[in-house]
From TrEMBL:
It comes from the Bacteria. This is Aldo/keto reductase family protein. Gene3D superfamilies: NADP-dependent oxidoreductase domain. Residues 2-165 form the NADP-dependent oxidoreductase domain.
Length: 189
């Protein structure tokens, strides 16, 4: 924390459900109890891994950061998190532009109705679902655009239309594929 010139972190996450997750979590619980971290959570935990962590530890994860976007909506996973008091947070809310997200006709037509970009439609859709989204941008105008989503609301019909885009699969990789688990487990940060 000295290198960051901070007294505490707002949120500290375990990035993947591999390796010594329990040892890491218990160390994070100690940081939380000591006031060095205001909230602790996880990333990329499927419901079975998340429940295992909940059952075997003292402090509940505040957040589970998972791939969530119009093509991988995580509806059931979100419901599970809601039932277990864990906030869903979207990494990659725009799927890094995969599946031609920024050219999608449905999202574009909804955006046109409200004079909003596809990115704004996606962020509004996530917000209305109760999903925390962290869009990545290095351009000031895009950052400003990403905040300009609170002056319109999607209709239930539009939300239902966006549901039809769900492929129920990752745009990136499967966290349960043994080859991927091996590759991720061998990575040293």
């Amino acid at each position: 924390m000295k290198a960051l010139q901070l007294d505490y972190l707002d949120l500290y996450l375990i990035h993947q459900p591999y390796g010594d997750v329990y040892g890491s979590w218990r160390a994070m619980e100690e940081l939380y109890k000591a006031g060095k971290v205001r909230a602790i959570g996880v990333s990329n935990f499927h419901p079975d891994r998340l429940m295992d962590l909940i059952v075997h530890n003292e402090i509940l994860p505040a957040v589970n950061q998972v791939e969530t976007h119009p093509f991988h909506q995580q509806i059931d996973n979100q419901q599970f998190m809601l039932e277990n008091n864990v906030q869903i947070e979207s990494w990659g809310p725009f799927a890094e532009g995969r599946n031609n997200l920024f050219q999608n006709e449905l999202l574009g037509s909804i955006g046109k109705k409200y004079d909003k970009s596809i990115a704004q439609v996606v962020l509004r859709w996530l917000t209305q679902r109760g999903v925390v989204a962290i869009p990545k941008s290095i351009r000031k105008e895009r950052m400003a655009e990403n905040f300009n989503i609170f002056d319109f609301e999607l209709s239930q019909e539009e939300i239902e239309l966006i549901k039809t885009l769900d492929t129920k699969s990752s745009a990136f990789f499967d966290h349960r594929d043994p080859a991927m688990v091996k590759w991720l487990g061998e990575r040293k940060l």
